Amino acid sequence: MYMAYMMDVNVTKRGGEAVYGLGFIGAAIYYISVAATFWAGVLGFLKAIIWPIFLVYGALKFLGN
Predict the structure, then answer these.
(1) What percent of the chain shows pLDDT beyond 70?
(2) Cα separation, 54 vs 56, whole angstroms
(3) 43 near 54, Cβ under 8 Å?
(4) Do the beta carbons of residue 31 and residue 44 sit within 8 Å?
(5) Most CB contacts within 10 A, which of 9, 31, 35, 46?
């Protein structure tokens, strides 16, 4: 019974990783393409790593109004 539960968790976890991975690639392409300097591109890459934070913050800010 316990092993069946663990299998369900792994299947669910893979979907979230795929969404995060695609979001990371898209955010990295966007932030790097709009960067004017090398260091702005580096900062854009770091922003792409934590893109879900910006998404949740924007959604909560929108819902709070």
Answers:
(1) 77
(2) 6
(3) no
(4) yes
(5) 31
Domain layout of the chain by residue ranges: 25-65
Structure token digits, residue 45: 């890459």
Q: Which amino acid is at 62?
A: F
pLDDT (average), residues 3-11: 54
Instruction: Report the alpha-carbon distance of residue 10 to residue 30 in Å, rounded.
Output: 30
C-alpha span between 40 and 33 (Å, rounded): 10
Per-residue DSSP letter, 37? S
pLDDT band of residue 18 (cuts 50, 70, 90) is: confident
User: Taking 90 as the threshold, does the pLDDT of residue 16 lie above it?
Assistant: no
**Strand, helix or coil at 1?**
coil
